[in-house]
Amino acid sequence: MTDTRNAEIISGFRPQMLKFARLQLQDDSGAEDAVQEAIEAALGGIDRFAGRSALKTWIFTILRHKIIDALRERGRTVQVSSLERDESELDEAFDALFKENAHWSPQSRPKPWGDPEEALQQRQFWHVFETCLEILPARTARVFMMREFLGFETDEICTTLALTTSNCNVILHRARAGLRQCLNQGWFAGEAQPC
Amino acid sequence: MLSCKHTTHLLSEALDRPLSRRERFALRFHLLFCRGCRAFQGQMDFLRKASRSFIHWRDAGDQ
Ligand SMILES: [Zn+2]
């Protein structure tokens, strides 16, 4: 696996990215810029990706993030909210797992996942995993992927995205808690109970 | 005693920075008595492992 091959794969995504960006931004030159910026940002670290799916998830996450930034700059909050599930919505879903005293409420207390190792061998699991990443808010997903896919240290991520350290920590926690909940519902809850 | 919610934050941060002695102690104490947070901890470790495997996972479409 070489960088060149991944760079080729990325340029193969370009038409699809442009289409997506045009649709959201309603503006050709803005769309070109967003795609270009997303590709440039995605190139750093692409040598770590061995598979097409993960690479695609990563580059579309950056693109979503760029588009949302562009929409925000234009003050188009309505379009932003239709494109992005809100971060506060995720936080509310997480808070709902707890009682008043911030301990787990009995029905949502986490239970160990059956055989998570085995999930890693299954194609269908990776589709669920991809979907769970895709429904995270764009910034949340990007920070998570920088940390967990590319292995950046938290302070490098904060500097790159102009976030404070505590902000970064909150975002990473939000991403992990959100993914946990999504996988719990989308995969592990459907698992057969051992008899 | 830590709350479960606070514990989940420490469990997440433990993946990103070394915790202080005090934090480690409080965390260990909480986990000793809380099944829910122990399960959460296992799931956080799994997420890390899954993410690392995901970037190496090759679909049938990959050559
Ligand atoms: Zn607990």
TrEMBL record, chain A:
Keywords from the UniProt entry: DNA-binding, Sigma factor, Transcription, Transcription regulation
Any GO molecular function: DNA binding
Signal peptide bounds: none
This protein's record includes keyword NAD: no
Pfam families named in the record: Sigma70_r2 (PF04542), Sigma70_r4_2 (PF08281)
InterPro entries: RNA_pol_sigma-24-rel (IPR014289), RNA_pol_sigma-70-like (IPR039425), RNA_pol_sigma-70_dom (IPR014284), RNA_pol_sigma70_r2 (IPR007627), RNA_pol_sigma70_r4_t2 (IPR013249), RNA_pol_sigma_r2 (IPR013325), RNA_pol_sigma_r3/r4-like (IPR013324), WH-like_DNA-bd_sf (IPR036388)
Every RNA polymerase sigma factor 70 region 4 type domain range: 129-177
Protein name: Sigma-70 family RNA polymerase sigma factor
Source organism: Zoogloea oleivorans
UniProtKB/TrEMBL annotation, chain B:
Domain Putative zinc-finger: 4-38
Pfam families: zf-HC2
Stored InterPro entries: Znf_put
Annotated protein name in UniProt: Zf-HC2 domain-containing protein
Originating species: Zoogloea oleivorans
Taxonomic lineage: Bacteria, Pseudomonadati, Pseudomonadota, Betaproteobacteria, Rhodocyclales
